Amino acid sequence: MTEVLLERRYRPIPEDILHRAFEVLDPAKRGFLSKEELIKYMTEEGEPFSQEEMEEMLSAAIDPESNSIHYKDYVTMMVKDEN
């Protein structure tokens, strides 16, 4: 996944669209997903992530103190990395 992003094979998705995608997974609009929720969505829905892809995402996305992903911060980080 990182290789694909670094080689810029696909155009980046705008920040607002990424944010809305996470909000779909967070109907209560808490602003975060638990590690368990994220793993469930990314491995059981749609095209599942491999174990390696999941570990890579978790290492970048999960806040170790809360054990959750604050997706607004994560999306901002992803978009900044693309520029």
Automatic annotation (TrEMBL):
Q: Which InterPro entries match?
A: EF-hand-dom_pair, EF_hand_dom
Query: What does the record give under GO molecular function?
Result: calcium ion binding
Q: Which domain of life is it from?
A: Eukaryota
Which cellular component terms (GO) are annotated to the entry? sperm principal piece
The segment(s) forming the EF-hand domain are 13-48
Gene3D superfamilies tied to this protein: EF-hand (1.10.238.10)
Q: State the name under which the record lists this protein.
A: Dynein regulatory complex protein 8
Protein's organism: Physeter macrocephalus
